[in-house]
Amino acid sequence: MKGETYYTQLVAGERRRLADRLLLGLLKVCAVLYAGVMRLRAAAYACGLLPVKRLPVPVISVGNITMGGTGKTPTVLLIARALMARGRRVAVLTRGYGGSLEGQTRIVSDGNSLLLSPAEAGDEPCLLAASLPGLMVVMGTDRYRAGCLALKVLSADCFILDDGFQHQRLDRDLDILLLDGTVPFKNGWTLPAGFLREPPSAVSRADLVILTRCSAADSLADFLPLQMPVCRSSHTLTGYTTLSGGEVRPFTELAGKRIVAFCGIADPASFFDGVEACGVSLVATLALPDHCGYGAREMEALGRLKQQYRADCLITTAKDAVKLVPYAGIIGDCFVAQLELTLNDPEPLTAALNQLV
Fold this sequence. Notes:
The chain is of the alpha/beta class. The protein folds into 3 domains: 2-46, no CATH class; 59-228, Rossmann fold (3-Layer(aba) Sandwich), CATH 3.40.50; 236-340, Rossmann fold. The chain is built from 11 helices and 13 strands. The protein has helices at 2-11, 18-46, 72-85, 118-121, 123-131, 143-154, 268-277, 296-308, 318-321, 328-331, 347-356, and strands spanning 59-64, 90-94, 106-110, 136-139, 158-162, 174-180, 208-212, 230-242, 245-249, 259-263, 282-287, 313-317, 334-343. A hairpin with a 2-residue loop joins β8 and β9 (245-249). The protein starts with a helix and ends with a helix. The mean pLDDT is 92.
């Protein structure tokens, strides 16, 4: 985590020593080269120099151009619910990052049963499957191959490509790009001098942009191409459940409790701030690496933190909770904050989905 903190401070311009400035200058030279490669890659796909495969049913891609969280999982779930309400058999095609079976093409959920564990498939595929009954999830680095498996075995008739904006080898009928409405391009630099996977010009490839973390009063961003359909959205913590699930309860029921918050996500500060904004008093927080694989060391660290601050209970994210079920008897009282995505102006997305399906 110290390395991550240093890197974040370095690219944000908060490190001012001569050695830091020289290193940042070198990273910016590398970033210019990287951005050029990504532009050439996109152009090669656009003109047909790199092959693009197509599945015989509608494909909707949801992705971003920044490293870190922009709300892809709740957006995928929102779109999946909308498609399923229209009678579609929806399958999510996802990479399966962080699981022991990463790289293999496997069915995570057939819509009825979870067939792989978070340790095997990664946290996000299992969270998607557990969050929406009837949703099918297939993992695989090659999303075309994963889609063929879903067609053959699951009879899927509509696909959502999770984190698919850069996966241009698979054709899509609707390309949705998520941008953080507060800092859409971070510091404006691509990797390794910033947090952009592609230069900002890549926005023009999208069919629809969803600005996340917006309030109803936010104006549409000036950085988007003219006539680009845009939705604004906000993330809301609606309450909490126990680790085993069940009814969503209001945060007011946690009043007076000493609570430690922890998570292993890309933007832990946003989770901690969001919980406190809901009136929950946190006595301590613990930020773990993104996609953290929980084991004995993490359980010991949480136990020490809970004891040190005389905490009554713990609270975490749904993404972390799917990996904590095996430790339910060890971790003690652990609550799960429930996050929902709300579209402030859903009409562009509704129109796009209606036209597609």
